[in-house]
Design brief:
This protein is 39% helix and 25% strand. It is α/β, with parallel strands linked by helices and 130 residues long. The protein is globular and about 40 Å long. One of its GO terms (molecular function) is transposase activity. Residues 46-127 form the Transposase IS110-like N-terminal domain.
Length: 130
């Protein structure tokens, strides 16, 4: 059986990808707790690492039978670039996004994306415990 968390472990040495790993891992944990009576698997999800001037987006695409595909892209935080991020995520058919609620930088990103995706906004301190 395909395990996205094991597949992600090979990228954990890089800081940005490590943050995306924690964000996506927390999304899997939350969804698993929410529906503990069934197996939850998200075939197209993303983790966003939001900073004051950049957003690093990591998209993971995979199914139980396929190899995991990972794409990472960096976007500036201007409004026009947030809409570019939205289009990039839509082009990858992302359904779920995990992001940290650190500081205030997440708010404009969340406001633009919330109508299009199922977003898990996670407390950064709790993500790090997983």
């Amino acid at each position: 059986m395909f395990n996205p968390l094991l597949a992600l472990s090979k990228w954990k040495d890089d800081y940005v990808q490590k943050n995306a790993y924690f964000q996506i891992h927390s999304l899997f944990v939350i969804l698993s707790l929410w529906s503990d009576w069934m197996e939850v698997f998200i075939e197209r999800c993303a983790g966003l690492d939001v900073h004051s001037e950049t957003i690093v987006a990591c998209v993971l695409i995979g199914s139980k039978d396929d190899e995991l595909i990972k794409e990472t892209e960096t976007f500036p935080t201007l409004t026009k670039d947030l809409f570019r991020l939205l289009k990039w995520l839509e082009d990858h058919d992302v359904t779920h996004i995990a992001m940290e609620s650190t500081g205030v930088y997440w708010k404009p990103v969340f406001n633009i994306l919330e109508d299009f995706f199922d977003i898990t906004l996670a407390n950064a301190q709790r993500i790090k415990t997983y």
